[in-house]
Specification:
Elements lengths: L1 H9 L25 E10 L5 E10 L7 H10 L3 H15 L5 E4 L24 E6 H6 L1 H15 L2 E7 L6 H6 L4 E4 L1 H4 L6 H16 L3 E4 L5 H9 L4 E2 L46 H15 L2
Parallel strand pairs: 2-3, 3-4, 4-5, 5-6, 6-7, 7-8
Antiparallel strand pairs: 1-2, 1-8
Helix pairs in contact: 1-3
Length: about 300
């Protein structure tokens, strides 16, 4: 714990806090841990309905960088993706200490000295860790990507996750040569999955391919009950999306296992262990969340 506190004070140095660009806007290089917030979205096991992991998502407190796209665009322009990633990880690992955790690595970080530093918080996380990189990174910077990821994963014990698979950069051989442990299908493959047979055939094939090569599959962007049922029917392992839960400040969300159920597990259990005082699914009390989950179960036919 003392080591983690030392990390947290490292990027809050006042040397950076007053840096402004020509328009008077704070630069990304000036951002410290007090400027960054992190929220967590559950990834749910489709076989059990239980929370498998959480993904950390960055939120900047400054209005000019409230949109994560603007935040990382600014970081790219300032060549500051490495430093920003370090700050985000410090905040993330201070908030979440014992859950299976997915953390995003920006492609530009792969060429930065920050990610491979031995004092990076990645090296001190005690629970299971999964590093997400986008499919585009595996295509555009393959040799660098492979070498850096191999080094970091070997040192930290992290599992590799390919994000946005199917977004248009696909080079299956290069991507699969990285031996990812998890593949997350791009939103464009998921949206309307329940309505288009050809799309369903494509996703079924991709899920089967990933399984044959030893990778688990996450269906992202699940927003409707029909998409949830279609995702389960593909044989995918996990699901993530607003239907299940919106991002929350808490990384411990025991309520979400009631949202998806095995077909034999109709009806609610007599008690829910570890129920939090609020639930991000319904943004309400546990009892209302139970009723919300029951409606989903009945309408989805679980």
């Amino acid at each position: 714990m003392a080591i983690k506190k030392q990390h947290l004070t490292w990027t809050s140095s006042r040397d950076h806090t007053q840096m402004l660009d020509s328009d008077g806007k704070r630069t990304v290089k000036s951002l410290a841990i007090d400027d960054i917030n992190v929220v967590f979205q559950p990834i749910v096991d489709l076989a059990t309905g239980k929370q498998f992991a959480v993904e950390a998502l960055v939120r900047c407190k400054l209005p000019e960088y409230a949109n994560p796209v603007d935040l990382f665009s600014g970081a790219e322009e300032e060549n500051a993706c490495g430093r920003l990633g370090r700050v985000i990880r410090e905040v993330t690992f201070d908030r979440c200490t014992n859950e299976t955790l997915f953390v995003n690595i920006h492609p530009a970080e792969l060429s930065s000295r920050w990610l491979v530093r031995t004092d990076d918080p990645l090296n001190f996380y005690s629970a299971a860790l999964c590093m997400e990189i986008t499919e585009s990174a595996t295509f555009e910077q393959y040799d660098l990507c492979a070498n850096v990821l191999k080094e970091v994963c070997a040192r930290t014990g992290a599992r590799l996750v390919i994000d946005d698979f199917g977004a248009g950069y696909s080079n299956l051989k290069r991507m699969l040569d990285l031996h990812p442990d998890v593949v997350k299908l791009d939103l464009t493959l998921v949206r309307g999955l329940d309505k288009h047979e050809r799309q369903r055939t494509l996703v079924d094939g991709l899920v089967g391919l990933c399984h044959d090569l030893g990778a688990k599959v996450v269906i992202e962007g699940v927003e409707t009950l029909d998409e949830l049922k279609a995702a389960r029917d593909t044989g995918a392992d996990y699901a993530q999306g607003f239907l299940l839960a919106r991002p929350s400040r808490s990384c411990q969300m025991a309520m979400f296992w009631t949202v998806i159920r095995r077909p034999a597990m109709r009806g609610l259990p007599p008690q829910i262990p570890g129920v939090a005082s609020t639930c991000a699914v319904s943004r309400s009390t546990p009892m209302r969340c139970l009723r919300h989950s029951a409606r989903i179960n009945l309408r989805a036919g679980f």
